[in-house]
Write a structure and sequence with these properties.
Elements (H helix, E strand, L loop, with lengths): L4 H12 L6 H13 L4 H8 L3 H14 L15 H16 L13 H12 L5 H10 L5
Helix pairs in contact: 1-2, 2-3, 2-4, 3-4, 5-7
Length: 140
Amino acid sequence: MPQSAGDNLQALRDLAASRGPSLAVWRARIVLAHLEGQTYREVSERFGCSQATVAKWVRRHREEGVGGLEDRERSTTLGPRQRMLQDWLPEVVRRGPSAYGVDRSRWTLKALQSLFERHFGDRPALETIRRELRDLDLRL
């Protein structure tokens, strides 16, 4: 039996009131702030995320309820960009910017993004680069 709108709102409030470092709690707070009348812009500024992120979680909650705010399984199959980044990043980070003609003393995410685009003609998102660096245990 599907939850009523009131039950769904109460479940959302309960989740948003939870303690602990949970992405689902953060997402519930985003959705609840919007449902309480804040605009996407106001919510994005309050929670430090993009308006697109706010829209994503509001839509997911509307379509799936509180369960839609939980993490989903990710495919374990790497796409071609991820494979290229995993092969490319360790060497690039180890050698440093000057080895690639980049006039910087240290790498930044944007500099890595620009270099990747120059070499491969593809522009990965900054968050993709950050995640791959983390997964490879690399530091800038």
